[in-house]
User: What shape does this take?
Amino acid sequence: MNEGRLFLYNPYENIFEARVLSREKTARGYEVVLDRTAFYPTGGGQPNDTGWLDDSPVIDVVEENGTIVHILSQPIQVERVTGKIDWERRFDHMQQHLGQHILSSCFEKLADADTVGFHLGSQYVYIDLNRPDLPEETIYRAEDMANEIVFRSLAVKTYIVSWEDLPGIPLRKPPSVTEDIRIVEIDGFDFCPCGGTHPAGTGSVGIIKIRKWEKNKDGLRLEFVCGKRALRDFRDKNTSINKISSLLSVRDHEALGAVERIAAENKCLSKAVEELREQYYSLEAAAMVRDAREIGPYKIVRFMFYKKPFDEIKLLASKITEHGGCIALLCTSNVKAQLIISRSPDVPIDLRPVFKETMTLAGGKGGGSSAVVQGGVETPEKAQIVIDETIEALAKVLVGSS
Assistant: This one.
């Protein structure tokens, strides 16, 4: 079964010749089966290769019932083809996958933490460990150990063994198959059953960098990058820290302290601004209450604002109703309009029936409690109708209750 899978024996073989066994047009594309292939199909946490069969792009590779199927974006008609792997993608996957083997082995050796999940994404790589309680110190010790294995440029060997051979091999995890078991060995350091692609030596991984970690279900999920991904990640962070340092006029190693100071100052300023905002609306509310229309012992405060944020309208309404005997009818409008109507606790009226009736009249929607209702209508003119009709309805109720 494995003879035609060239990637199992030489992951560096990225150009090959093959005979077409079948071709079929399906909903996925043009599916082609070859007698031999270097294209790796999605599986074992590793994504598929892409590339070309002659000039036809290979957009996906899957394994179905033991057969590797190449999915093309355009048909081929020939009986023999030249396959070419997208080498940059393949080598990236090789770096990330071997980096995962190394890192998983380090966690197993240092913390007795087994890798129970692996995902090689387009930007980052994830492993799930069965230990949710690993301290930061242990995580960085594993990272240091992993990079030491990289720096030592240990040889990576692959070979096929039988089930009977397994007792003599210190496997990190059990195999998922019972025959033709492929072992990936990192020169005595790690032995793992795996069908993926890996470089011939650990030095090709370049560097392994853990980016972050978090608890995931009953374990710990770590995000990391290797090789060129690690280089790009460092370059992006270095560019950001240099720009931040320049903006703050500090050295790069001083940037964190400067940002922490700015964040603390901003928190104080935000608190001061909020206090001033509260004071401002308290004063504005007091002025509006003084000038309000009186209906019996109650005061009606009405006002339409243009483009004023609705959260500020709500704050102003709450400040108005802190005064006894008040009802606030406020609106903010642009193309559409939002309204809020609220009353002081000592005003004996349920706003909901009146509001529902007037909103229905204006074609609007809304709701709330007996003391505060809010909603929206299509135009400022309809909002004016809601306010006018609400005041008229409230006046009848309030006069009758006073």
Q: What stands out?
A: Residues 343 and 371 are 5 Å apart (CA to CA). Residues 91-235 form a domain with the Threonyl-tRNA Synthetase; Chain A, domain 2 fold (CATH 3.30.980.10).
